[in-house]
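Severity: low
Component: inverse-folding endpoint
Summary: output formatting inconsistent between runs
Steps to reproduce: submit the following structure tokens with default settings.
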């Protein structure tokens, strides 16, 4: 516990610098005059010890008095003050002098808790005395419960609005709690850029702390690591990966607890990137695929690494599109694919297996963090009516395609039988599918499936 956190010996201490003397009057019906006199002596001895700064001895006397006459406000008040003083003393001590332990090893925090216990009883017994609140607030301060301390002082001021010590205490508390801890008076850290990610300059979301001690949003860190495995801040080489790296739970909890709304906003923002929406698809621009194809891909480009990470946190789906060679822009029709296997490699690449699903038409597309995202419209097949020329053209095209494919498969089998030295047979699909895809809205899905 830093010494700067405990109240400095200013106004707060003033009222607690001394203890109350015991007034000997026989108000107790249970105790004899002799016993009361003995209690009086114990308290006076305690007070003498207190005034000579022998706090442990003072506490000892007060405790003996309390054992005989429990629930006495003066005994409780004096003992609470002694606990507070000794706790403060041990909290402010330099580390080198801390070998000697207080009160047979009681920690300053335990002492503050004992002070609080006495003060709480005192508030119950003397709810109209400012000092009760003052003691309780001081004990809470030592326990760093600033907000509660503030409430107690305010309650005390309701009882005694002119209590200078309570007013001073309040001012002092505001100073201590805001200057030494960066806390606002409501017990929350101020929203400065301490909790911002140095990469996106926003509130840390799912923070990851690197071995070099720097914290970033998980997604920001891995996006930067797509371009090299160094800490973006200090350039230390990092041996972490999205798979093995865990979120810094404590940091996350602190942020989430203190800035709940902003954190929720960040989450929403991030979820938006992962789950683009029903009709929004991130696009992998490579080649034409037709439904039900399966093949592996090696994802090495940084922008696609980022895209695949996001897809894998979402619904595992993306669009596979091609650039139209004539116009250089995206072809109008493309196909949705599902990532069925995803193996992250140690160097940050991904080995994925995909299976193509539905065809779609791109309504519009835009850049997002380096890759394309498109708003799409799913294609519904309409079979041209019987007897129309469209129907005939379609059938002819399908038959030709099937024939070409069959002969290709036959040739491929032939090659396989006659050894592996000539293993390359040009696929007819590349050329054909490009034509097909432009007819995509006209070809019934069933035709493609039977092929
Ligand atoms: Zn960030
Ligand atoms: Zn670093």
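Observed output (run 2 of 3):
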């Amino acid at each position: 516990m830093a010494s700067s956190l405990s109240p400095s010996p200013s106004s707060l201490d003033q009222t607690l610098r001394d203890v109350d003397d015991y007034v000997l009057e026989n108000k107790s019906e249970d105790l004899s005059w002799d016993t009361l006199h003995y209690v009086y002596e114990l308290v006076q001895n305690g007070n003498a010890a207190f005034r000579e700064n022998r706090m442990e001895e003072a506490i000892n006397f007060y405790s003996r008095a309390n054992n005989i006459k429990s629930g006495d406000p003066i005994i409780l008040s004096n003992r609470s003050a002694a606990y507070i003083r000794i706790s403060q003393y041990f909290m402010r001590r330099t580390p080198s002098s801390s070998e000697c332990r207080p009160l047979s090893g009681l920690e300053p925090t335990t002492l503050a808790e004992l002070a609080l216990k006495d003060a709480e009883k005192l508030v119950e017994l003397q709810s109209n005395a400012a000092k009760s609140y003052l003691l309780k607030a001081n004990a809470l301060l030592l326990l760093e419960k600033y907000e509660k301390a503030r409430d107690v002082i305010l309650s005390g001021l309701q009882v005694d609005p002119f209590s200078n010590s309570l007013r001073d205490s309040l001012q002092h508390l505001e100073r201590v709690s805001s200057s030494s801890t960066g806390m606002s008076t409501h017990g929350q850290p101020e929203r400065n850029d301490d909790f911002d990610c140095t990469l996106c300059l926003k509130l840390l979301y799912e923070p990851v702390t690197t071995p070099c001690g720097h914290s970033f949003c998980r997604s920001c860190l891995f996006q930067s690591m797509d371009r090299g495995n160094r800490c973006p801040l200090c350039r230390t080489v990092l041996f972490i990966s999205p798979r093995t790296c865990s979120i810094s739970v404590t940091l996350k909890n602190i942020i989430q607890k203190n800035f709940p709304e902003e954190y929720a906003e960040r989450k929403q923002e991030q979820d938006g990137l992962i789950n683009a929406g029903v009709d929004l698809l991130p696009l992998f621009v490579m080649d034409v695929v037709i439904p039900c194809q399966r093949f592996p891909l090696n994802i090495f480009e940084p922008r696609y690494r980022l895209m695949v990470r996001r897809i894998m946190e979402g619904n595992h789906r993306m669009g596979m599109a091609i650039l139209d060679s004539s116009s250089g822009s995206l072809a109008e029709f493309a196909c949705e694919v599902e990532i069925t296997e995803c193996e992250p490699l140690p160097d940050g690449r991904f080995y994925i297996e995909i299976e193509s699903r539905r065809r779609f038409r791109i309504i519009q597309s835009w850049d997002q963090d380096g890759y394309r995202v498109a708003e799409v419209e799913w294609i519904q097949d309409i079979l041209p009516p019987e007897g129309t020329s469209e129907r005939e053209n379609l059938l002819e095209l399908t038959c030709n395609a099937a024939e070409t494919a069959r002969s290709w498969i036959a040739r491929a089998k032939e090659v396989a039988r006659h050894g592996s030295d000539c293993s390359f047979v040009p696929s007819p699909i590349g050329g054909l599918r490009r034509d097909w895809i432009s007819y995509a809205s006209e070809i019934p899905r069933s035709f493609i499936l039977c092929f």
